[in-house]
Amino acid sequence: MMKISLQKERFFTLYFPLLITMTFIMFPFYWTVNTALKNEGDIVKTPLEYIPSQITFDNFINAWNNIGFALFFKNSLFLAGCTVISVVFFATLVGYALSRYRFKGKKAFLLLLLCTQFVPGAMLIIPLFIIFKNLGLISNPLSLIIAYTTFQIPFNSILMNGFISNVPVQLEEAAMVDGCSRLQAIRHVIFPLLLPGIVATGVFTFIYAWNEFLFAFMLTNKAANFTLSVGLSYMMGEFNINYGALAAGSVIALVPAIIMFAYAQRYLVNGLGGAVKG
Amino acid sequence: MAGVKLQNIYKRYGDTTVVQDVNLEIKDKEFIVLVGPSGCGKSTTLRMIAGLEEISDGDMYIGDKRLNNMPPKDRDIAMVFQNYALYPHMDVYENMAFGLKMRKFAKPEIDKRVHEAANILNLESLLKRKPKDLSGGQRQRVALGRAIVREPQVFLMDEPLSNLDAKLRVQMRTEISKLQKRLQTTTVYVTHDQTEAMTMGDRLVVMKDGIIQQIATPDEIYNAPVNMFVAGFIGSPAMNFINGNLQAQGNKVIFTACGVEWKLTNDQAKKVSNLNYVGKEVIIGIRPEDIRNEGVSTESQKENIYKTCIEVQENTGAEVYLHCTGVADTMLTLRSDCSIKMQCGEKVTLSMDMEKAHLFDKSTQQNIMLCK
Ligand SMILES: Nc1ncnc2c1ncn2[C@@H]1O[C@H](COP(=O)(O)OP(=O)(O)O)[C@@H](O)[C@H]1O
Ligand SMILES: [Mg+2]
């Protein structure tokens, strides 16, 4: 008796809410995949098919080969990759300086970094467009790399500051007494301990750059330079929406993000927990 | 091996001076202990020797090389940190080998030295463990091992035992002393614990507020402290201080305070007369073991007595500390034999061993007997 009521309680307090939440979150994903696997006729058929009667990969093949998602994918990957490298590089340096050195105006600087996070991106589109136009960088991936790096440095610097502060200074000093220069100490002792933090920073930046739409849309005007998000937006035309390609493209766009999280998951948990123990 | 010489060393942070005019000559093979209350600049001094802290002013030599601006890696020193600072991502072997690897030693030589050190420190079975899987005492030994494999000119240790429990601390105290005797490496050891300092050092450097108070052997520090600070800091329980006056009485000099008349020894009398202290206020300092409990006998013929009552007893097992009502609202502490059973509140007659008493100038707090 007792046992059953306990199980019941557990079901209603734990599994049931989790189930509801999961359904709520997962349904759009399910529907995207579902749509991507249907042929054109079935997509708009009424009544709706919750399980496709006929599975086809045509949408994927079409999106990848004919519409140009292969190119968009490559563009996005290049863009996100470059952004990750430059953000990780700069954020690590800024984080190191913030964590290890005392200097005048450090508090004000930190506050400024935080304040940049309150500026809505949409507000910056026109100034940025003008700047990049004058620099002749419109539709050049460099403009997006610069823009993304700029937006991502503040937050990630604060993040890295936290990670670096978690590595005791004494470790660096011990390494220096043991025969390292400061750079060697960073390379041999600080860097390995910082890896979870660096991976966390990298993943966040990657996902941001991968998903970003507004700037990519505004600063790109040649199809050859479209990112995935921009490419997807063009699937919704003025008069018709290419549901199959849209869904297939979305699934394609999802894959790297999922792989990334799956790989980085343990680093993220470690990194965000700040668990570099001495 | 080499000695270390500090000449007029200063450390300033902006307007605050945390180490002031430190002059210290550490001999080759010597075990020297920097001791003082926390915040007195011991670590800063040590870190300046290590090169981890810039020297604001003065000269520092190891051997006869001046190395004020030499980076730590070129100084040929090894340091043991208070929190051990073991590299968490390396196992015990790698931790110990790291310094040698960075100095480009050959693999077989590294291997030989690490195993030697591991052998000395009983770490052989732990070489493959990561620091997080070690106990505090084991981490401590790895930190020592990391220092000794390097065979450096100088060991620097900053409160290496303060994170250990009391028993292990006593054990490691002798281990480190033994190790230093065996390796004959010049060692600078920082601690705030006066027992550690007294038991380990060949010489002690007592510091206060960034200024060296006295540099001497443990014996000398204990028996001839230069001032009240050193006298009070070294020794446990601490020395008793009593304010009073010096008065001439015939050819003798008497120390008087309310209800107290103690006769100075001839040496002391001569000194205070020469320095014109007679008739002036002084502070007398007597260690707890230099006060004898004469029991309850009121008809004592003894000199230099003080009649009081016991307020608190602290029994340590081997001996008992009696805290008695002292002169003018102070407490008077003495060591006594455990075999004599006393009650709190009981009246006692104490006699002072004036041979062992110290006299301090009231304003400068200097030890009068050591003044010129
Ligand atoms: N970076 C710094 N800026 C200002 N003051 C400091 C700094 N580092 C240490 N101090 C001060 O120097 C004094 C000596 O410190 P320290 O050498 O660590 O003392 P100890 O090791 O004897 O406890 C302390 O009062 C401390 O507040
Ligand atoms: Mg200290």
From TrEMBL, chain A:
Keywords: Cell membrane, Membrane, Transmembrane, Transmembrane helix, Transport. Gene3D superfamilies: MetI-like. Residues 73-264 form the ABC transmembrane type-1 domain. SUPFAM superfamilies: MetI-like. The chain crosses the membrane at residues 12-31, 77-98, 110-132, 144-164, 185-207, 243-264. GO terms for biological process: transmembrane transport. Signal peptide: none annotated. It is found in: Cell membrane. Its main location: membrane. It is a multi-pass membrane protein. It comes from the Bacteria. The keyword Oxidoreductase does not apply. GO terms for cellular component: plasma membrane. Belongs to the binding-protein-dependent transport system permease family. This is ABC-type transporter, integral membrane subunit. It comes from Pelosinus fermentans JBW45.
From TrEMBL, chain B:
Keywords: ATP-binding, Hydrolase, Nucleotide-binding, Transport. GO terms for biological process: carbohydrate transport. Pfam families: ABC_tran (PF00005), OB_MalK (PF17912). GO terms for molecular function: ABC-type transporter activity; ATP binding; ATP hydrolysis activity. The keyword Hydrolase applies. InterPro entries: AAA+_ATPase (IPR003593), ABC_transporter-like_ATP-bd (IPR003439), ABC_transporter-like_CS (IPR017871), ABC_transpr_MalK-like (IPR015855), ABC_transpr_MalK/UgpC-like (IPR047641), Mo/tungstate-bd_C_term_dom (IPR008995), NA-bd_OB-fold (IPR012340), OB_MalK-like (IPR040582). Residues 4-234 form the ABC transporter domain. Signal peptide: none annotated. The keyword Lipid biosynthesis does not apply. GO terms for cellular component: ATP-binding cassette (ABC) transporter complex, substrate-binding subunit-containing. Its EC number is 3.6.3.20. PANTHER family: MALTODEXTRIN IMPORT ATP-BINDING PROTEIN MSMX, OSMOPROTECTIVE COMPOUNDS UPTAKE ATP-BINDING PROTEIN GGTA. This is Glycerol-3-phosphate-transporting ATPase. It comes from Pelosinus fermentans JBW45.
